[in-house]
Amino acid sequence: MAFLAWLWISLVLGAVGVRPRRDFVELERRRQRAGILFAVGKSQVDVARELGVSRQSVNRWHCDWKASGTSGLAAAGRAGRRPMLTDAQLAGLERELETGPRAHGHPTDLWTLARVAEVIEKTTGIAYHPGHVWKILRNKLGWSR
Fold first, then answer.
1. Which of 35, 27, 41 has its CA nearest to residue 67?
2. 92 shares a domain with 67
């Protein structure tokens, strides 16, 4: 039964292009395993076959391994774009928001995403689209509706 559920989820999510999250620890472990295989004299084709990865990836890993050893196969760090607001800026933003909308010249005590975006730009100099402001409020500051 669990297999059928997995199969259904794989087919449905695969059909709409949703990819599972990458396990960065496992990816680095696989690259390190490739480095060990290179060190014992395995060919790139053999490494690709044994690890079940593309020859292009193995070629890139081999170049990194030749240039820097196993340290060249280490994880590169976080994936994706770095946050634009620092923790200090987020703390300052939260203090500003706690003063309320009226303190920022608005006629009502209602925060809207556009109003919060204005405060972010005024206090940090960084402009955000109002649609992204909700992600900052919810994910970074822990606010809810």
1. 35
2. no
